[in-house]
Please model this.
Amino acid sequence: MGAFLAESDTSGATAIATFAGGCFWCMQPPFDSLPGVAGVTVGYTGGTVKNPTYEQVCTGTTGHMEAVQVVYDPAKISYDKLLDVYWRSIDPTDAGGQFADRGRQYRTAIFYHTPEQKMLAERSKAALESSHQFNKPIVVAILPASDFYKAEEYHQKYYCKSPAHFKAYEKGSGREGFLELHWKIPLPDSDRPKPSYAKPSDGDLKKLLTREQYNVTQLCGTEPSFANEYWNNHREGIYVDVTTGEPLFCSTDKFESGTGWPSFTKPISPGAVKEKSDASLGMERTEVRSSAGNAHLGHVFNDGPAAAGGLRYCINSAALRFIPREDLSREGYGEYEKMFK
Model:
């Protein structure tokens, strides 16, 4: 059979996500129905046995977990959205399997294919944990993707091939009842998971960032004026920390300063950035850093528009990622849409 990798567009138009959530029969339907998902394959991954059969995996001795591999278009659906669907399809507190299915082959895991997926998965898991929606620890593993072996054909889209048996199994296993109890009822706003913008390790940052982004955010470098990505950007949207995704500034507070760097009158929220004295280069300045990631962003000066408070946050484009207004919900920043209404 050989290791299977779902086909992704060589132009980079599609990407791959891999999730283990117990019985793969139950993990395929939630992703199959999503706009932006090109295909979902059920199979086995995480183990040491090559070309395993269903019977071998069921013994629990191969090290493999039942999993789904999702091919998706990042322009139509974000990895954060896939993570949200994943959490809402499992019991994230069960370390021994899922519902009636016990053993390593039914354990939960998020298999990341890129450093960015790892960062987003860790951030999403931390947000769920900090929400206190569950009174037990979140035990889902976050692991590097390894060889994925496509399961036998009769397992693919089992919910379509044997709908009556599938529904009986989904209910009888306890999964349906658990999901109805814990996930189908909307959470009050006060109980919704709050994003946790965890800073990746230095090794991961070196893989995620360009050389200039790393130099600016981690080594306090400065990019050239008038030769950076956002100095002349006039689109509506928000600017987030390139290292963690934490929202930092909004286009509604951006203004033309004539300096050649993005300039803002204030952060997107009072706690988004922190300031510290900077006596480098023989000057007395106030450095601006991101709160969660402690990334160097730039400096703040007292020569901004008087009508807006008189401050000018002079920020390096290399420290930012721009999220256009029309992409806020897809990227997981829907709460900021109200800033443009």
